[in-house]
Amino acid sequence: MLTFSQPISRGNAALRGLLATAIGTTLVVWPGITLGTVIALFAIAVFGDAAVSAYRAFGEGRRAEDRTQLGLRAPIEVIAGVVAIAYPGATVSVMTVIIGVSAIAIGVNELTGSRMLRNLGATGTGWLVVSGALAVMTGVALVVWPGIGAVTLAVVFGLYLAFSGLALLVSAALTPSGKPVVA
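^ thats the sequence. predicted structure below, dont judge the formating
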């Protein structure tokens, strides 16, 4: 959920990786948390990701395709977050589908970004592929089985966040100092 198809700094990748791992681990360790907490954590994650996407879309030196991709991603995540907050009493099934669709969109974005980077000659995009595939698989599982319940939703989403965060942390740790992380 927290990765992009453009290079980012090691510190940025490590911070986002730590945040995703912490939230994901919390969801896995305490899966019985209320739906309200899951909604709040989801909203925080998508609003944060949308803000970074919007900021990066207007950064200097971006290609039109990158701007379009980031420009489409940000409003989709904002809409998902607003819907989650506006209807906190929504059923677990609806929340599960919202999270699933968001995860699929992020995964497709990461896989597309990985392919684009490889076509440009970039190396080390394997963690981006892992993260994207994991996001798509998690999203599909949540959309196909929306009635899985709040506890299962917390565990599945938590596992996705934890592994996505770990992928960012590993990418940051393996990237040489002064080089951008391809995440």
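The chain has one domain: 7-173.
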